[in-house]
Amino acid sequence: RLYKTTNRYDRRGKMKKQNQTVTVMLMTAIAIALAVGTTTLTTASMAIIFTVCIPFAIVGMISTEKQSMATFVVSVLAIFGLTDVRYAMEVVVTFVIPSILVGRLIDSVSEKDDEERQEPIYMGIIIFILSTIAYVIIAKYMMNIDVVKQLTDTFAKISKTRLENMPKEQLNVLGDVTAAELTDMFRNMIVSLLFIQSGICVFFTYFLGGAIAKRITDKNLNRIRMSGFYLPGNAVVITFVIYLAVFGLSYMDTGLNTIVIMGNLQIVFNIMFMMQGISVCIYFIKTRIVQGRGGIVFPVILIVTLGVMGGGTLIALLGMLDCIMDFRKIKPKMKKSI
Question: pLDDT per residue over 289-309, tens digit each?
């Protein structure tokens, strides 16, 4: 009996390993297909390219270190073999590597408490930002491509064409804005755009990728839900201190363009507080108004409606107030997943 029982457990363990290997191979194939397929798209490619993060992050969550490394090697060979060098370098450096790393981070903290399970979100944003910066440096010094200049030149052409073809009524609303001024504004917002891109990638990897991974594997991938997200530390005080520091620098002869720095900080902090505001909305609507698993539909519709109506500022204000007053009673340590 003991031999039969042991043999049965051994067979189950082998089957789990085989299922895990098959799942990793399937996710790798899907990831490569998405990475290669987006090269044939035009306008939609910029939006669809973010979905490449999901299967690579899932591989990082459900696989072993050897499997993750094998996936990375196979993906690099496939992407470089099926696309041009520049596109392959961009996808591998800015999406493949950070996605797998974030997936590994999610797996490593899944058994820890809820406060530590948020670390992949903050660390993921940093990883994606550093990866994009690394690609810009590689492109400039190894491939002789100035990515920032190409982006600004493309934006300048688009804005010039739009202004030339814009009806007079809309031109009157814009005033005397020129294409050069719009291009300068775009150039000054590159830091904020980098943060936004990284935040979108982390959202896909952590929330969507994590949700999918939990359904296709037996691994215990515990994560916080969107309704339990909150900013670390005292975000409002930190924001205020940073603003004061930049404001003080504006009176010193530092050579820094503090107006540009202030503008980028405002965009970044607004997005951060908006994320927490959205989390608060989802939490209260799910717990107080709509019960059951289908309760996510109504809050999403409400949040989108508020965004369309210009309610983004109100949501960000709600997030800021939650940092101070802790409406959900989940700080500094969440005692249970929400």
Answer: 555 544 455 555 555 655 555
